[in-house]
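Study this pair:
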Amino acid sequence: SIAYRPGQPEVGIPLMTNALHRLEGHDDAFLNGPLALGARRELAMMYRNTGKLGEAIGLMEDNLPLTIRTYGRTNAFTGIHMRDLAGMRRMAGRLDESVELYLEAIPILRHTLTTNHPHTIQAINDLGGAYAQSEDWQAAIPLLREATNGWWRQLGEEHSNTRHAMSHLAESLHQVGHQHEEEAQWLEAADRFGEAFELLRILGRGRRGEAIHLSVSQAGALGRQAGSEAYRNALAQLNALADSLAGEGRRHLAGETATLCHRLLASGHDEGAEPLARLSLRLRRRTMPGDWRTFNAECLVGRALLGLDEYAESERLLEPVSYT
């Protein structure tokens, strides 16, 4: 109790080390007892918090077989010890070993503490993070989704644990959406982008740029099926987002939609490109009326209309225009 001083690990380390030497000087009952096992774990945490990750991992790895021998392999304390060691291995970049230990710890914690216990939720969250760190986004998503829901139930929407899990889940969904795009799985991509957008909308302030990108990406994935209800809904969401923005936000959205229009036009999806080109033009006329980028947006609309055989309006937009 004296040795463990939260926020002062540099003070606690020598005291805890001294306490451990005294405990280990007794018989096996002390060496493998709860007090010594707990002291070693706390000392390892102090090492970790002062950047001495090698010492922390070594101590935890030595302590794990003693913990299993004392408590059994399926005890909650053993599961917590495994989770903490897995986290240190993850910090050290030993991801495969980290994942292996998380996969052993989580069923133990689910069984002994229940799925809704904070120790269990943290382990699930950390395993999802380890998969994301190794760019196995598909494996990360269900775990991060479970962790987000668990923290939300236990701690509420505004708690940092909930928001961190939500942010990591949004990033994983975003990455999987791009994977689906590369494989031309447009509906799957749109679903992932849409879910990520909703998470960023909840996270709110400070994530506007990412939210814009995801909303445009969702519309782009659905632009290959321009007549679908899903595409109409995506356009409605995009227009509502445009109406909520001002200044730099509108310019950012105009740029994202223009880039997407070029991609859709290049792939022959003129019908999907046309409403996005019009949105880009509307935003640029509001925010930069005399700029060359506004002229470019007019050309995009004209190009899309040309592909749809709307020659009269297309000709008017594609006529040379001089700006002062």
Notes: The chain has a mean pLDDT of 86.
